[in-house]
Task: structure prediction
Amino acid sequence: MSFVCRAVAGLRRQPHMDSELLTQELLGHRVRIHSSRGDFADCSLMDGYRGWMALSALSASIRYAATHFVKKRFAWIRGEETGPILVPMGSRVKVVSPGTVRHVVELPGGETGKVAAGALAEIAAGGLEVSALPWIFEQVKGSPYVWGGKSTFGFDCSGLVQFVFGLTGIELPRDSGDQAKRGRLVSDIDRLLPLDLVFFGAGKKVDHVALHLGDLDILHASGYVRVESLKTSSSRFRGDLRGRYRFARRLPHVQA
Result:
């Protein structure tokens, strides 16, 4: 098993840096390598997504076991050898010496560094409570739109949804078309509940996803991560999205 040893590593369609960015993985997360070609590895992420990742972004280890993750939008890790590294929310590290102000952590490549204790949370079996989602929303707001992005450095629409729910231990597919097959169908827009996944598209094709916050407000990545509305009387109304509304899905983990 290998682990991402950069703040963010891109998974690409072909083994070169000019190839399309499919998705990303964060520091300390596991990656399964199948083979290599030149400077790239043919690998799979834990969600099953497969593509090519730079070998320099990976560190092989059978003993590394992260204990904490970054719970704030960004955190600085002061590496003893490489100096300061800015890492995004969701990055995973191993605390080897806890402190009241700073923890000493080990990174997947074996380097140690220090990070503010308040920036980390312990990795629990089920992730954060679903009740923490509104707080997570505040951390991701304003992040720029990046095609294939899945970090607070930048998200695309489905990457945002997968990332947010992933922090609570709820695993979703990477792409909006596959996310649209999860949970219970909600066809009537007036019956949306908070945390429903809202899907948009033309014809039978789904090409955009958002998170319903309540009262037809949605959180989504469009230009940047923002809150807009499907309600005609709202000052944040997005008429183009309202016209492209397809349906919603209600996940069993977040609704009674």
Remarks:
- The radius of gyration is 19 Å.
- DSSP finds four helices and 22 strands in the chain.
- Helices lie at 133-140, 157-166, 176-179, 239-243.
- The mean pLDDT is 94.
